[in-house]
Amino acid sequence: MRIDVLSLFPDMFTPLKQSILGKAIDKGALDFHVTDFRDYTDNKHNNVDDYPFGGGAGMLLMAQPIFDAMSAVEKQAGDKGHVVLLDPAGRKFDHHVAEELAQKEHVTFIAGHYEGYDERIRELVDDEISLGDYVLTGGELGAMVIIDATARFLPDVLGNNVSAEEDSFQDNLLEFPQYTRPAEFRGRRVPEVLMSGNHAKIAEWRLKESLRRTWQRRPDLLANRQLTKQERDLLDDIKQE
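Now predict its structure.
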């Protein structure tokens, strides 16, 4: 099995080369690579993040460095593999997910930092995974947990069961899609409402998209949320679309 990781901090993965996983790497049961995606940024300041369109706290990872780093992985490995994005909006990680990933020949993890991702990065992604109801400073630790738990199912490593982590989300809603510069990236446009300057419309769009994502991916969360009249109306619109 080949595992690739896109990360700003490759040295954080050094512990994976120790102990049981280190032995698996040494004997060829696990082929492990880490790519620093800052090496692929095309701006003179080597920035990989920028402010979100529509305003808001924090910075978002830009699409360009991730797209080009993924192209480099694909060129080296022959394919980009099953791409996993570490994200709070993803499905919860547990024993069954680890067992499922262990069946893949090649898995690539995107370990992000900052507030989140430019939404267009998700076009590269096959799977989104979250560890649970807590916040980490970056995706590296999450990736290491998943890699360790997954590798235990490989025939030549260790086949023990792993503990499941259950996730939940603040306010029982998943986060809305976000975008950063450029406004158009390789033919993919940021939704016009986010660049309109109309804060009321932006807030309504974000609420509706948050409801949409929660209804599509984690409808169980809505059962634990007292919806306002506006939210009920928006959810009705979503179901009729």
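The longest strand covers residues 82-92.
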